[in-house]
Amino acid sequence: NFLLGELYDGYDEEYDCPILDEDRVVDELENQMREGGVVVDYHGCDFFPERWFHIVFVLRTDNSILYKRLETRGYNEKKLKDNIQCEIFQVLYEEARASYKEEIVHQLPSNKPEELEENINQISRWIEQWVKDHNS
Questions:
Q1: What element of type H or E holds 131?
Q2: Taking 80 as the threshold, does the pLDDT of residue 82 lie above it?
Q3: Which of 21, 67, 69, 100 could cysteine-pair with 9, CB 3.0–4.6 Å?
Q4: Which Pfam families does the UniProt entry name for this protein (predicted)?
């Protein structure tokens, strides 16, 4: 367990959010990741070591739905537009494909509550199967 405040390195006024210190995050998570059985949820992956992950899921959302979600969260105009552009150009998916073996990177739709539930079920099934495969 760590304090999130210790993992930031300043504040980005343009995007109205803290700046994550990626090196400190990796250092802080290293022991937990080595032990395995960890799920990491983050909006990017290029700074995480490849050895940490057996599978990567990239959640995708239709732009009109994403726009409304981000607008409801109170994102400023620049942050909102940049996030929508990121989704249009599949930036996070391409980043994941460039950072990890292509066969471990999977896209999941995340538009409706039913899809959220199915994604949880699919990820849970994958974890159960992985545990079976690696404990025999």
A1: helix 113-134
A2: yes
A3: 21
A4: AAA_18 (PF13238)
